[in-house]
Amino acid sequence: MEKQPRLTSRQIQAQKTKRRIFNAAFDLLQEMDIDEIKIADIVKASGVCVGTFYHYYKTKWDVFYESFQLLDDYYEEKVAPNLTQPHIKDRLLYFFTQYIIYHGDEHAANYLRTIFSTTNPVFMRSLYADYGYGMLCILRETLQQAITDGQIITDESVVDIAAFFMMSFRGLIFDWCARDGSYDIYAALDYHISHLLRIYQN
């Protein structure tokens, strides 16, 4: 494996500064709606100057969109090692509930309403592209294991099945966000996953 070059102290400090801005923006979601948050609020909360903010981000939306990109790292590092449940329903339920937890649990509806947008280039990535890393890759591997184990019976490709589950999940999340998180999303996930799996288990 090729050895990665060590970061300089300046690069390490830059990473810490950017992460401080990122964390401050998300802390503000605990206090106000995302539409109310201004760059001035993020700057004040993070303790940096306006110029420093614009060095790392063009707009406040770029800060929140970045969390979508970091989601792949979270799934590789935190979620994938724990997808050990014997039954595919439990694995999928764990897989998708982690998405809600990652985005802030009780404040997730507020945030997801923003990133579920056609203006978010990361959200708009094709569900049929060739992925070797991250959330969609792990979902495909999880479903492939279920096919191999005989828990899912289908002639469809694992790429198509994963896209189907992701589109269904996004539809559920969109409805939950549109209703301001007014119902139990975890119970709804359990219900939807059970019904979706019936398609592949009859």
Q: If you average the pLDDT, what whole number results? A: 86
Q: What gap, in angstroms, lies between the N and C termini?
A: 45 Å
SSE string, helix = H, strand = E? HHHHHHHHH
Radius of gyration: 19 Å
**What is the helix tally?**
9
| Fraction in helix | 55-70%
- In this structure, how is the largest beta sheet organized? none
Strand content: under 5%
Give the low-confidence spans.
Answer: none
Give me the secondary-structure topology.
Blueprint: H1 9-28, H2 39-46, H3 50-56, H4 60-79, H5 88-102, H6 108-115, H7 135-149, H8 158-178, H9 185-198
Describe the fold and architecture.
The chain is mainly α. It is 63% helix and 0% strand. The chain contains nine helices and no strands. The protein has helices at 9-28, 39-46, 50-56, 60-79, 88-102, 108-115, 135-149, 158-178, 185-198. The protein starts with 8 loop residues before the first helix and ends with a helix.
Describe the structure in brief.
The protein is mostly helical and 202 residues long.
Tags for this model:
9 helices, mainly alpha, single chain, 202 residues
